[in-house]
Amino acid sequence: MASAAEQLAASINFGAFAKATELKKRIWFTLGALIVYRLGTYIPMPGIDPVVLAEIFQQQQGGVLGLFDVFSGGALGRMTIFALNIMPYISASIIMQLLTTVSPTLEQWKKEGESGRKKINQYTRYGAVILAAVQAYGIAVGLESVTGTRGTAVIDPGMFFRITAVVTLTGGTIFLMWLGEQITQRGVGNGISLIIFAGIVANLPHAIVSLLELGRTGALSSAFILVLVVLVVGVIWFIVFMERAQRRILVQYPKRQVGMRMFGGESSHLPLKLNASGVIPPIFASSLLLMPATIAQFSAGANGPEWLATITGLLAHGRPLYMVLYVAMIVFFAFFYTAIIFNPVETADNLKKNGGFVPGIRPGQRTAEYLDYVLTRLTVLGAAYLSAVCILPEILISEYAVPFYFGGTSILIVVSVTMDTVAQIQSHLLAHQYEGLIKKAKLRGARR
Q1: What is the Cα–Cα distance from 294 to 17, expressed in whole angstroms?
Q2: Are 386 and 326 in contact (CB under 8 A)?
Q3: Is the pLDDT of residue 33 over 90?
Q4: Angle at 266 (CA atoms; ends 262, 272), nearest 5 degrees
């Protein structure tokens, strides 16, 4: 079976793609939805002076706003209707996953299958709307309090502007939530991930132009740019290798006799990813570390406290304290999030109920301890991999002024989403190939 599947996968070519009408419709729908998203990132929010806003954002692009602007595809820097992007929904999803581990009701919903998943998704949407409204109001108040050389960013501050900002930004997030779900159902790939992916990729041309401009002005040598290109390609290859890496634990099922027939006796594998936490640890670590710098920049005009300025200086890019805390937080969140999404006790119980066991390990508690033992060591390697991928770009950014879009988190998201989307396209092509083989077999049987 494995060799036949490999031969079938190897036979997939452009000819098979041309015949897959359903897949082409899905791809065109995905591209159309992403174009709609990109157009929305240029529709400005009412009541904003774009010149003053550009000046203010230029001063604060090194903070958490710069990180979020990368994920929003520049929508936050232009303060458009999609300025919040899909981040409130992602935050709500993470909060719901955290609550699932402490709430018996949510844990029961999780075990109910499809119906429980729909309930959790519905409450996740409610939470995303609440978070979006709170963040939108905070942005509106923050914009009213900051000023540039030409005045305030808000043309007419007041409650009417705040209400308008909350309705506009929250509505933009709700629309993106709906658009992402439509891409997932009617397109190819995960819609939410593709929206973030499109925002990052849309800024890559600007980053490349900025890098070439640094080479033209002599700020960076041609040899360094060449080394940087080779390094980026190497990092991408390393990310692909590590994201595909997994530990396969052998699971054996005993034989059982039903009537005159013998069932069972097969063996399968329980795959454990090397990096089970994905890109969540770098995102959380970056957000927490950049928050003091952003607060200090917002309060600079209001004579903020001196201790906040001191902390901001210590946590600047390239400083030893920043690097140490960044790695420590990545490691912490890697273990924390892995513990949330994978429960060794629950997995061991499911194996025991289905009659499966790990050879040499007793079912039940001993299996759970063994899975936890293996997962802990895999997470150590995964956390080290994430730290290396994220720290290297930070050094390049701080020492050589490499554009911010070459950050480790951005590359991780782009590579991971690309791999997932390509895998789904291959699955659709395989399904189309199998359908073609079944139809041919039926035609041959009918002729006989």
Answers
A1: 48
A2: no
A3: yes
A4: 155
Largest CA distance in the chain: 89
pLDDT at position 10, please?
A: 45
DSSP at 11: T
Tell me the one-letter amino acid at 443: L
Q: Using alpha carbons, select from 343, 292, 353, 326 the residue that is nearest to residue 409.
A: 326
Which range has the worst mean pLDDT, 133-142, 203-212, 343-352, 374-383?
Answer: 203-212
3-state secondary structure (DSSP) of residue 357:
strand
Tell me the CB-side half-sphere exposure of residue 366, using CA atoms within 13 A.
Answer: 7
pTM (two decimals): 0.78
**How far is the C-alpha of 341 from the C-alpha of 361, rounded, in Å?**
23
Side-chain-side CA neighbours of 430 within 13 Å: the count stands at 13
Q: Is residue 276 a contact partner of residue 264, using CB atoms and an 8 Å limit?
A: no
pLDDT at 212: 81
What distance lies between CA 380 and its chain's CA centroid?
A: 20
Average confidence score pLDDT of the chain: 79
Looking at residue 221, what is its pLDDT? 79
Which range has highest mean pLDDT (69-73, 104-108, 138-142, 243-247)?
Answer: 243-247
